[in-house]
Write a structure and sequence with these properties.
Layout (H helix, E strand, L loop, with lengths): L2 H11 L4 E4 L13 E4 L3 E10 L12 E9 L4 E5 L4 E3 L5 E3 L8 E8 L3 E10 L2 E7 L10 E7 L8 E6 L6 E8 L2 E9 L15 E3 L8 E5 L5 E6 L6 E7 L4 E7 L3 E5 L4 E4 L3
Antiparallel strand pairs: 1-2, 3-4, 4-5, 6-8, 7-8, 8-9, 9-10, 11-12, 12-13, 13-14, 15-16, 16-17, 17-18, 19-20, 20-21
Length: 275
């Protein structure tokens, strides 16, 4: 696809960018089975340098990423390589302009081999990529967090990053906002999970304005994934707008076309309406 068309497509899809299957032939360093992202200032970004130095493999993969690479709108290629005690324990590159400067940042799960996962915000620094801010590491290995969605959830005009801390253990939803070179937690609530252990599906969540107030709500499964929970964060608090029971455990493919649709562990698809 010509660059002009790619940039136009990215603009139409909004500031969070679009995800696509990576053309592995375009970069021999690319992480297989990962999902690249397309943006505007950052035309494309993807994980690189597959490594098995961290033996968690929580999302049914055989390697993690040892670095990141991006192609800028002007054609420049910028990269970063992690030290040997860290990996990107992630399979999806996410783009969002978190500071309002017109250039997207990259959001990814950064994992220390000894301290577990953190959420990292990565930006362009000249001809390189570098970490702008990160949440604290969880504190021990084999402990992971899974990003959910990025949107302006509280209506203040600034995007927040929703994530689930340890979706198989602690099951805590958190909202974080980039403030300068710091990520600050602005809301949290327990009993949520957006990942079934051992599966590739990391996108078990949805952001959308369901109630027509002009602000995105967040849909994410309950801790046992037997229900879908719909949250509003308007005003800085957390309000559960609905809790929609399911006939089994949600595992993936959460979409909305007037009703919510989700794939269950038995392979079936269930549709539920938001009241």
């Amino acid at each position: 696809m010509p660059l002009v068309m790619a940039l136009l497509l990215a603009f139409l899809l909004g500031y969070t960018g679009s995800a696509r299957a990576l053309d592995l032939g375009s970069d021999p360093d690319a992480l297989r089975d990962s999902v690249a992202a397309r943006g505007v200032a950052i035309a494309e970004a993807w994980f690189i340098l597959p490594t098995a130095r961290y033996d968690h493999f929580v999302h049914d993969n055989s390697a993690e990423a040892g670095g990141l690479r991006a192609r800028m709108a002007d054609g420049r290629i910028v990269s970063m390589v992690l030290p040997s005690n860290e990996v990107f324990e992630d399979s999806i590159v996410r783009l969002a302009d978190l500071d309002g400067d017109g250039t997207e940042e990259i959001v990814a799960v950064l994992t220390s081999l000894s301290q577990g996962s953190a959420l990292a915000v990565i930006g362009v620094d000249g001809d390189n990529l570098g970490i702008i801010a990160a949440t604290p590491f969880i504190g021990r290995p084999h402990r992971w967090l899974n990003p959910a969605q990025i949107a302006d959830f509280d209506g203040d005009g600034r995007p927040e990053i929703a994530l689930v801390q340890m979706p198989h253990l602690v099951k805590r939803l958190e909202l974080w906002r980039l403030e300068g070179s710091t990520l600050r937690r602005v809301a949290h609530i327990d009993d949520v999970s957006n990942h079934a252990i051992g599966t590739k599906q990391q996108s078990l969540s949805l952001a959308r304005d369901f109630n027509g107030d002009g602000v995105s709500e967040l849909v994410v499964p309950s801790g046992g994934r037997e229900a879908l929970r719909v949250f509003s964060f308007v005003g800085g608090g957390v309000t559960e707008l609905a809790r929609l029971a399911l006939d089994g455990a949600a595992v993936g493919d959460l979409t909305y076309d007037g009703t919510l649709s989700v794939r269950l562990a038995d392979g079936g698809i269930q549709r539920v309406a938001i009241p």
